[in-house]
Amino acid sequence: MQSAFSGCGDYLGVYEKFGLVRPRSVFAHAIHMPGDGFKRMAKADACAAFCPSSNLFLGSGYFDLKAARAAGAHVAFGSDVGGGTSFSMLSTMAEGYKVCKGRDAPLNPFLAFYIATMGAARALRLDHQLGDFSAGKEADFIVLDPASTPIMARRAAACTSLHDLLFAMMVLGDDRAIKETWVNGKLAHARDGAAEILTIGNSSWTTLKV
Predict the structure, then answer these.
(1) Is the domain of 20 the same as that of 117?
(2) What is the rounded end-to-end Cα distance, in angstroms, of the chain?
(3) Domain final residue pick, 93, 123, 153
(4) Is 55:64 a contact under the CB 8 Å cutoff?
(5) Which residue numbers in the chain have pLDDT < 70?
(6) For the chain, how many structural domains are there in total?
(7) Which of 46, 47, 154, 209 has a CB 3.0–4.6 Å from the CB of 123, allowing a cystine?
(8) Are 170 and 117 in contact (CB under 8 A)?
(9) Which one, of 21, 113, 103, 110, lies nearest residue 76 by Cα?
């Protein structure tokens, strides 16, 4: 790379030279960043795609989520269809937890679900259209069933907080947890079977929308 682009100080600099580090630019993996790489990405309003399934499967390295967030860089999850092992965003979050745990910086489930939803929308500058349930936004969302498998039901029944429930769904959930899929406010897919009613603290939960 250095011989082909001698005027660039590092790999990210090659993209900067050609004006490709800019808003809505998404850089997959970002596991071998220069010391100030995330700061430069943040300044350019670019995004790093955290692809933990692929990185763990290939043994290519650990993404530094803590450093990326400290620098103010946008981060979104990616499944990486080439090297990853699952298309499920829940499975991707579970793998992300392992990566972050390996860096001694466990991934908070609230942050994980944020990165998978509103965080990704903001990274792509689509947060005015989607990412949460604000009035006027496109109603694209899924309904998750915390009792979709026996092990999830057992674990969820013991949860005493939303934090615990989200963590359980993050580390145990996969495509089977998707009860309904809504696109632009219309039900596009529904899985048969009702979710069990779970009592968490003083609240009862049947499904969880994200």
Answers:
(1) yes
(2) 42
(3) 123
(4) no
(5) 1-3, 193-210
(6) 2
(7) 47
(8) no
(9) 113
Do 52 and 101 belong to one domain? yes
Using a 10 angstrom Cβ sphere, with 0-12 exposed, 13-18 middle and 19 or more buried, the burial of residue 28 is: middle
Instruction: Please give the biggest Cα pair distance in the chain.
Output: 63
Query: What's residue 196's pLDDT?
Result: 46
Range of the domain at 26: 11-123
Q: Given its phi and psi angles, is residue 100 left (phi above 0), alpha (psi -120 to 50 degrees) or beta?
A: alpha
CA distances from 201 to 49, 60, 172 (A): 35, 41, 21
- Helical pair 150-157 and 162-172, crossing angle rounded to 10 deg: 160
At residue 36, φ and ψ (nearest 5 deg) are -105, 15
State the pLDDT at residue 7: 74
Residue 19 lies in a domain: yes
CA atoms within 13 A on the CB side of 156: 29
Q: Give the bridge partners for 143, in sequence order.
A: 180, 209
Tell whether 31 and 71 lie within a shared domain. yes
Type of residue at 120 = A
Q: What are phi and psi of 6, to 5 degrees?
A: -65, -20
Q: Is residue 4 part of a domain?
A: no
Cα–Cα dist 158/210, whole Å: 21
Q: Are 179 and 190 in contact (CB under 8 A)?
A: yes
Amino acid type, 53: S
CA distance 169 to 93: 10
SS3 (DSSP) at 98 = helix
